[in-house]
Amino acid sequence: MLRHCLATLASAFALATLALPACADDAEVIETCVTTAYSSGGDAHVCIGRVADPCLQKPENQSTHDMMACSDKETKIWDAMLNAEYQTPTAPSPTSFSMVAPCPSRSAPTACWRTRPIA
């Protein structure tokens, strides 16, 4: 019985790791949507679900495993885009929050903080 349960768990794990791969076309759908949203002054939130939603609507993707695979496929695309963005060097912010002086009063500690140009 234990051997059967372990074999079943091993099979389930093997299937779970075979999530749908994110293909370049899917990534392009999201990247195009984000680019269009930003260039038109819109919000990129409308791009969420552009890959997962059509995948979830397919009749063959109605099991929990397939639904997770659809969501995972889109998650991987967003993760790759986010990681690429993290690698992009950015200019330092013109201001930062910094402590400028000891607090003159314990009743107003926020008075101790102000924005100050980065030196």
What distance lies between the first and last C-alpha atoms, to the nearest angstrom? 69 Å
Q: Outline, from the CA principal axes?
A: globular
Query: Low-confidence stretches at least 5 residues in length (pLDDT < 50)?
Result: 4-19, 95-101, 109-119
Output the number of helix runs. Answer: 4
* Mean pLDDT reading: 73
Strand order of the largest sheet: 1-2
Could you explain how this protein is built, in words?
Mean pLDDT is 73; it is low at 4-19, 95-101 and 109-119. The protein has a domain at 21-88. 51% of the residues lie in helices and 8% in strands. The chain is built from four helices and two strands; from the N terminus they run H-H-H-H-E-E. The protein is mostly helical. Strands 1-2 form a two-stranded antiparallel sheet. 8% of the residues are buried. Helix 2 crosses helix 4 (64-87). The protein has helices at residues 2-16, 24-39, 52-57, 64-87; strands at 95-99, 113-117.
